[in-house]
């Protein structure tokens, strides 16, 4: 995990493996900021959708015991939204470096689409 200070708040950048492990342990809320179409085509199982075009930090879930981690396709949109959350007063926020592309490069499982049927299909690239 890398971190930097933005307006006095620590912005964390997590690796896909760190996100995978923390999600499996129930330690984080993973929020996908991609479009609904991108999410429906393929997404991390257990992630919530809050598209960048509708992103409003005031609607983020409470962080009582879980860290919020944002992700997108490449890490650009999620970092931008993490910075917007900090500007809105959120003091615990992280994003996944490299986004969903890095998740797939790390050969982590995700929900995809069976191109033959159009149905959701679990992808376990290991």
UniProtKB/TrEMBL annotation:
Tell me the keywords, alphabetical order: Nucleotidyltransferase, Transferase
Q: What CDD domains does this protein's entry cite?
A: RHOD (cd00158)
Has UniProt tagged this entry with the keyword Transferase?
Answer: yes
SMART domains per the UniProt record, alphabetical: RHOD
SUPFAM superfamilies for this protein: Rhodanese/Cell cycle control phosphatase
Span of domain Rhodanese: 24-112
Q: Where is the signal peptide?
A: none
MF terms from GO for this chain are:
nucleotidyltransferase activity; thiosulfate-cyanide sulfurtransferase activity
Q: Which InterPro entries match?
A: Rhodanese-like_dom (IPR001763), Rhodanese-like_dom_sf (IPR036873)
In terms of Gene3D superfamilies, this protein maps to:
Rhodanese-like domain
The protein in question is named Putative adenylyltransferase/sulfurtransferase MoeZ
């Amino acid at each position: 995990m890398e971190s930097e200070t933005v307006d006095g708040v620590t912005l964390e950048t997590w690796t896909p493996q760190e996100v995978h492990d923390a999600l499996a342990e129930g330690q984080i809320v993973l929020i996908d900021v991609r479009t609904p179409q991108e999410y429906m085509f393929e997404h991390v199982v257990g992630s919530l959708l809050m598209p960048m075009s509708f992103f409003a930090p005031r609607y983020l879930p409470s962080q009582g015991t879980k860290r919020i981690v944002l992700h997108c396709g490449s890490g650009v949109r999620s970092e931008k939204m993490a910075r917007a959350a900090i500007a809105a007063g959120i003091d615990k926020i992280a994003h996944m470096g490299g986004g969903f592309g890095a998740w797939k490069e790390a050969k982590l499982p995700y929900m995809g689409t069976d191109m033959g049927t159009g149905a959701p299909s679990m992808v376990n690239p290991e």
